[in-house]
Write a structure and sequence with these properties.
Elements: E1 12-16, H1 21-32, E2 36-41, H2 44-53, E3 61-65, H3 71-85, E4 90-93, H4 106-137, E5 140-145, H5 158-177, E6 183-190, E7 193-194, E8 209-210, H6 211-223, E9 228-231, H7 233-244, H8 247-254
Parallel strand pairs: 1-2, 1-4, 2-3, 4-5, 5-6, 6-9, 7-8
Amino acid sequence: MPATPALTPAPLVFITGASSGIGQALAARYARAGYRLALVARRTADMQAWADAQGLGPECCRIYGADVADVDSIVAVGHACLAMQGVPDVVIANAGVSIGMDTAEPDDIHVKARTFAINNTGLAATFHPFVTPMTARGSGALVGIASVAAIRGLPGHGAYCASKAAVVAYCESLRGELRGSGVAVVTLLPGYVDTPLTQKNRYSMPFLMSAEAFADRAFDAIQARTSYRVIPWQMGVVAKLLRLLPNPLFDRLLSGRPRKHRQGTKAVP
């Protein structure tokens, strides 16, 4: 009697910041596509409640608790995923914070350090455990979630804009390092997405889109292994036009624009 062939496991996606917003929408999109999920955030109870509501059992969804700002914490979770679920096909470094800052305020320098710890060092630490096994396999995608705010600095957004510009530069560097390995590096730049992170903004948000709509377009870009994409494309056009403006005109245009809330001035998600 011939041996029964071993079943090939469903592909696996590893997503940080998966307890709400873009991360949760991406998790739902990948679940619909038949992927197994490795979901990471500090709020593990929220993630588990979501997974239970979606009918996602442990055979297809595992929850990991980690603080992305703590390198040892997020690296340990990456190794735990490798041990329990195998090498992911897609790793999405989505965890991030956006808090207003004023360089004249001493506490805001610590805000900037925390922002970079999560948005940049944490992103690299998220990728770290997977680079070697993905390269050995010769396939996979590492996805960095940047922002259209990376394209031009906005008053009061110094920490966020700088950190997201650094995501773009870092992913570009990593893409060159992994060229020819079979591992793709995808950089996504969301415009304004309706999430808990943006709902407290006190300024207009053109081309605002739902997290679900963003997740659909992001999924397509990642599947296509697109190296760089602004979502939605209209926001990319606006950002590029702003990039072309001479500095005096750009500065005048943004003069008096409401700024993002600083830490302590209003609750920050």
